[in-house]
């Protein structure tokens, strides 16, 4: 019997989830909750789903799918995740950024833990099969001990997009960020409640003892680098490059990493993220920390971004993680927080009805 799936929030991103769950052999999409009635009608027709609801509560009062994917604008994620946990859904996933206020995200993680539900993250580059394989090789010691790590282009959206950097950094180094010291620019962006336009330079202290520089600039990568004496792994918003050994001038040499391909390449890293979720659901909640992306990972990404903003705001004070003050917050830009309809870039009904949403 396939696992039944309900999608809560079926806009641009929710439709990508619906496509994946509708075609994977292990799952069957059975219910959709979507606030926009026209969009709800056309995505129901498009995916052949009759159980259509206006919101999470209505859905969960009627059906309890095995899996609920919450693909809502940030403002609405908490209520839907907690409602799903209270309804007894065994597997709940959401996407980034998971929220704005740290205590809200704590509540989601706690509600899922108390209910015994697996709480997964979503479409993050951390779930890319090649990123996972590079991390596994670093962890195995194949490249020798990790000597350094750096974060590049941590700016303009440190919560909304920068959460990708933090999630990859923690994976590749196998370490937690334990202290954040940051400088923020421009000053008016630091004073805002949201992360739009805020550029961060600084350093992250890691639980492994390494101190990781954080650059606003590209220098020349835009992502995360982790290195050993003779190897450098570079994630630059794509399949990680691996450099191994040196040429006659002592320069690092790119190698072909010979990554294994993903089983369902058509769904990209959303597909590998979902597959990891299905695997952990089968193994049990005690394996939750093996998820390619977990709710905990999304919380850690938010927490580092919040710490960077507040360190910078207070004059580059080093802030220890976990942050004690759980009322601290950082909001993403309006599209991510409120969605396309409310922020002036709605998806048209025609696009929602078609097989290739914009
Ligand atoms: N991981 C990624 O690469 C990535 C990329 C884009 C978006 N996202 C995230 O995915 C989420 C959705 O983004 P999107 O691009 O699909 O936005 P969108 O605006 O296209 O879709 C959101 C949908 O949710 C519906 N909705 C809003 N509030 C609701 C509620 N309370 N109950 C039911 N339905 C509700 C809206 O009507 C809309 O159809 C956001 O959190 C965004 O940050 C992640």
Can you give a write-up of this model?
There is one protein chain. By secondary structure, the chain is of the alpha/beta class. 37% of the residues lie in helices and 22% in strands. The protein folds into two domains: 3-124 and 265-293 and 348-353, NAD(P)-binding Rossmann-like Domain (Rossmann fold); 126-263 and 301-320, Dihydrodipicolinate Reductase, domain 2, CATH 3.30.360. It is built from twelve helices and 16 strands. The strands form two sheets. Strands 7, 8, 9, 10, 11, 12, 13, 14, 15 and 16 form a ten-stranded mixed β-sheet that branches. Strands 3-2-1-4-5-6 form a six-stranded parallel β-sheet, with helices on both faces. Helix 5 runs antiparallel to helix 10 (295-313) and helix 7 crosses helix 10 (295-313). The chain starts with a strand and ends in a 5-residue tail after the last helix. The model has no long low-confidence stretch (mean pLDDT 97). The structure holds nicotinamide-adenine-dinucleotide.
């Amino acid at each position: 019997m396939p696992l039944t799936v309900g999608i809560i929030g079926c806009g641009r991103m929710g439709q990508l989830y619906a496509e994946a769950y509708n075609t994977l052999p292990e799952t069957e999409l059975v219910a959709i909750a979507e606030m926009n009635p026209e969009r709800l009608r056309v995505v129901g027709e498009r995916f052949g789903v009759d159980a259509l609801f206006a919101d999470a509560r209505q859905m969960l009062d009627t059906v309890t799918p095995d899996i609920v994917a919450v693909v809502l604008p940030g403002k609405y994620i908490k209520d839907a995740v907690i409602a799903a946990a209270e309804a007894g859904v065994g597997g709940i996933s959401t996407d980034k950024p998971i929220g704005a206020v740290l205590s809200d995200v704590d509540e989601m993680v706690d509600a899922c833990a108390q209910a015994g539900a697996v709480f997964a993250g979503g479409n993050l580059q951390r779930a890319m099969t090649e990123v996972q394989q590079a991390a596994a090789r670093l962890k195995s010691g194949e490249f020798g001990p990790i000597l350094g790590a750096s974060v590049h282009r941590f700016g303009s959206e440190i919560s909304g997009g920068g959460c990708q950097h933090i999630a990859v950094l923690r994976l590749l180094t196998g370490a937690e960020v334990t202290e954040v010291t940051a400088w923020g620019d421009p000053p008016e962006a630091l004073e805002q409640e949201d992360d739009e336009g805020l550029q961060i330079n600084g350093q992250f202290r890691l639980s492994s003892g390494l101190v990781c520089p954080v650059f606003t600039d590209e220098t020349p990568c835009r992502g995360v680098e982790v290195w050993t004496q003779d190897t450098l792994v570079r994630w630059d918003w794509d399949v990680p490059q691996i450099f191994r050994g040196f040429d006659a001038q002592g320069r690092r040499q790119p190698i072909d990493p010979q990554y294994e391909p993903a089983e369902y390449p058509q769904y990209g890293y959303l597909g590998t993220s979902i597959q990891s979720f299905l695997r952990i659901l089968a193994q049990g909640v005690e394996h939750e920390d093996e998820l390619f992306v977990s709710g905990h990972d999304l919380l850690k990404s938010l927490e580092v971004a919040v710490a960077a903003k507040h360190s910078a705001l207070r004059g580059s004070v080093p802030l220890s993680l976990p942050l004690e003050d759980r009322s601290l917050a950082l909001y993403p830009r309006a599209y991510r927080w409120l969605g396309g309809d409310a922020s002036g870039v709605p998806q048209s009904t025609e696009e929602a009805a078609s097989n290739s949403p914009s």
